Automatic annotation (TrEMBL), chain B:
Residues 103-155 form the RNA polymerase sigma factor 70 region 4 type domain. One of its GO terms (biological process) is DNA-templated transcription initiation. Belongs to the sigma-70 factor family. ECF subfamily. CDD domains: Sigma70_r4. This is RNA polymerase sigma factor. Keywords: DNA-binding, Sigma factor, Transcription, Transcription regulation. SUPFAM superfamilies: Sigma2 domain of RNA polymerase sigma factors, Sigma3 and sigma4 domains of RNA polymerase sigma factors. It holds the Pfam family Sigma70_r4_2. The keyword Transcription applies.
Length: 76, 182
């Protein structure tokens, strides 16, 4: 761990506004990995059903779908 | 415009990235899904104000971001308590070391000021242009650029200098991406 630390500071010390390309790309990778991890979960059923229900003619009451959000929705 | 089938499909197609954005902002999967649900309801209720041909994801992200901002003010303390809890909300569990690094990254991200974090996510993860990110956040393009730069610098300082024991090889990324094929 100590070795990594000194190694890291030596090879990739970021200046005030000047990040090394290496660090920039590392941050970019981690950011996208985190984000894509969620994206890959796809569309949860609750949202697919919500939109289907609201879309269907006469189906806009969405008894279950809107849950506790009714008070905020469409009133403002 | 009216809610056509194709518009509905486009809204559905945006849900996965809306969720990813919401989780990145709130650090909590349950709250994130509530935010997404509220966003969809708002969007559908106001669908007439969507301009056909304009950027639908950007429009949806703007709604979600504004909902989060008003919610955030109410719940500031909870959000601060949520630091470090993000990893528990994830379904995938990368290998132990990679998982720790991932948590470190997440923790560092949560230490960024709100403005910087959202700018970095919109540009660096959601893939919006600086112009779209500026319009989502309601600020100038130059402001977004500087927020993104400051966010990157701060992350680098948190992860790779002060906490340099977190400076691992790309294992985290590989483990987390694992099997997606790119």
């Amino acid at each position: 761990m100590k070795d990594l630390k000194s190694q890291a500071s030596k090879s990739t010390t970021p200046g005030k506004g000047g990040l090394t390309p290496e660090i920039q790309s590392r941050i970019g990778h981690q950011l996208r990995a985190m984000y894509d991890d969620v994206v890959r979960q796809g569309v949860p059923d609750r949202f697919a059903e919500l939109i289907k229900k609201l879309d269907a003619p006469g189906g806009s009451q969405n008894e279950n779908g809107a849950g506790g959000s009714n008070d905020n929705n469409g009133r403002d | 415009m009216p809610l056509t089938n194709s518009l509905r499909d486009d809204i559905l197609a945006a849900v996965p990235s809306l969720r990813a954005f919401a989780i990145s902002l709130s650090g909590n999967a349950d709250r994130a899904d509530d935010l997404v649900q509220e966003t969809l309801l708002r969007a559908l209720a106001n669908i007439d104000s969507f301009q056909p041909g304009s950027n639908l994801p950007a429009w949806l992200f703007t709604i979600l971001r504004n909902l989060f901002r008003s919610d955030y003010r109410k719940r500031r303390r909870e959000v601060e308590d949520a630091e470090g809890n993000y990893a528990k909300t994830l379904k995938t569990q990368p290998s132990q070391n990679a998982h720790l690094e991932f948590e470190e990254f997440r923790g560092a991200l949560e230490k960024l000021p709100q403005d910087q974090r959202e700018a970095l996510i919109l540009v660096g993860a959601s893939g919006f242009s600086y112009e779209d990110a500026a319009s989502i956040c309601g600020c100038a393009v130059g402001t977004i650029k500087s927020r993104v730069n400051r966010a990157r610098s701060k992350l680098a300082a948190l992860l790779y200098v002060d906490g340099a024991e977190d400076f691992g090889p790309d294992e985290t990324v590989r483990a987390v991406i694992g099997g997606s094929g790119g």
